[in-house]
Amino acid sequence: MAIEKGTLVCVGTGLNLAGQISVLSKSYIEHADVVFSLVPDGFAQHWLESLNDDVRSLQPYYAQQGEVKNRRETYEQMVAAILVQVRLGKKVVCALYGHPGVFACVSHFAIAQAREEGYQAQMEPGISAEACLWADVGIDPGASGHQSFEASQFMFYKHTPDPTTHLLLWQIGIAGEHTLTEFHTSSDRLQVLVEQLSEWYPLEHEIVLYEAPNLPTQSPRIERIALKQLPFAQLSAITTLLIPPSRELEFNHEILAKLGITAEELG
């Protein structure tokens, strides 16, 4: 009898325990032979274990207390563990916190490797922190647009934000960390970021520190502070920095003229 060829599906569990996972993603978990998990707490892990008898946490691959370990090595080990089960002909699911393709390189690496080896591999979307942010803070990003950057990447490269739109900086809690061995930033690094941002935003400009809740009993963190106060703020691994527009949208009169539209018509 031929061994069934393994498959891989990476799913998102959403941000809020059990309530934000899609019906399809939950079904994949329930019918998998093996489920690998990368979720933020024991509550989420126990919930996954209630859906499937073989749920294996990927958390132990991270550096343990007192150990210095590059996150690239961690991710490589996670991918290797996932692919072992796929090669054994198992229906494998990798369940990741939030959206499985947003700041979750393990899913991208694992899917790419599985496909390269000829296995069927796919990703199912989940509710991301960004989706929760718009809902919790009460912003329609379509009103003025938005830009989104990983905080350290924004610092290391010559990105130019548009101060007429909303700016999101992800993983602000490790802003400026380049060794991939630490999970925190420092006030000095954040001060460098503030100085960088002051090119486009006044130091008194109001910014928002956002954290989506993990449990139905929790409330989102929506803390409004001045940009200059950022180096002294309490940040965690899930803190996102939202910088609202500091300038009004400007009409593109050249394009409006070509379209035969006046600024007055647009209000």
TrEMBL record:
Residues 7-212 form the Tetrapyrrole methylase domain. Pfam families: TP_methylase. It comes from the Bacteria. This is Tetrapyrrole methylase domain-containing protein. It comes from Shewanella schlegeliana. The lineage of its organism: Bacteria, Pseudomonadati, Pseudomonadota, Gammaproteobacteria, Alteromonadales.
